[in-house]
Amino acid sequence: MPVILIGFMGTGKSTVGRLLAESMNQSFCDLDELIEKEAGMTIPTYFDTYGEQVFRQLEQDLLKKAIDEYDILSTGGGTPTISANQKVIQAAMGRTIKLDAPIDEIRARIGDDMNRPIFKKLSQQAFNELKEKRDAIYTKFCDVIIDTSQKNPREIVAEIKALIYSNTDELNYASL
Ligand SMILES: Nc1ncnc2c1ncn2[C@@H]1O[C@H](COP(=O)(O)OP(=O)(O)OP(=O)(O)O)[C@@H](O)[C@H]1O
Ligand SMILES: O=C(O)C1=C[C@@H](O)[C@@H](O)[C@H](O)C1
Ligand SMILES: [Mg+2]
């Protein structure tokens, strides 16, 4: 039963997923890293070379493989917004956890890191609107939401582990 971390850019999916896997001694995959490995180039270069649509196809192809193979998966910020990916995530019957943070904290975390092509191309207002729009999708497809603001990654890992090891009813409130 995989643990799948979803959420907007900069909410900490990669950081927390890696730490969580380490602390549980489980296998870990960061979908963006898998894409970069398979493509043989960075995501910004892939976007520049092939465009977002081709990127989304590769992301979709690798999501299925990663969900089948790994215990803990950190997705990309856009992964759960594609309907084919939503079906794959739901079919995995895992624990889908949305990480969240206020937009100002996300900006502070990712700063001017231009490794995120979606962030790079959007105005401040469009970025804010994208977060709102995507948040509704993440919420619909997750079992639980973890607010990561003002918490360090280790505290978030502890929170996730407490949820995993507690009554699973709590993990289902968001999808009711
Ligand atoms: N809880 C946290 N508190 C403060 N900074 C954090 C926290 N979690 C992650 N960060 C920092 O925020 C930045 C983004 O984190 P990370 O890359 O893990 O996010 P992400 O959700 O995987 O983003 P993306 O969707 O773009 O892959 C990194 O610099 C990371 O060190
Ligand atoms: O939010 C997004 O659409 C993206 C987030 C990153 O994780 C990468 O998957 C890519 O940069 C696209
Ligand atoms: Mg990431």
From TrEMBL:
One of its GO terms (molecular function) is shikimate kinase activity. Its EC number is 2.7.1.71. Pathway: Metabolic intermediate biosynthesis; chorismate biosynthesis; chorismate from D-erythrose 4-phosphate and phosphoenolpyruvate: step 5/7. Substrate binds at D32, R56, G77, R134. Keywords: Amino-acid biosynthesis, Aromatic amino acid biosynthesis, ATP-binding, Cytoplasm, Kinase, Magnesium, Metal-binding, Nucleotide-binding, Transferase. Its main location: cytoplasm. ATP binds at G10, T11, G12, K13, S14, T15, R116. InterPro entries: P-loop_NTPase (IPR027417), Shikimate/glucono_kinase (IPR031322), Shikimate_kinase/TSH1 (IPR000623). Its cofactor is Mg(2+). Mg(2+) binds at S14. GO terms for biological process: amino acid biosynthetic process; aromatic amino acid family biosynthetic process; chorismate biosynthetic process. Monomer. Catalyzes the specific phosphorylation of the 3-hydroxyl group of shikimic acid using ATP as a cosubstrate. Belongs to the shikimate kinase family. PANTHER family: SHIKIMATE KINASE, SHIKIMATE KINASE 1, CHLOROPLASTIC. This is Shikimate kinase. The lineage of its organism: Bacteria, Bacillati, Bacillota, Bacilli, Lactobacillales. The gene is aroK.
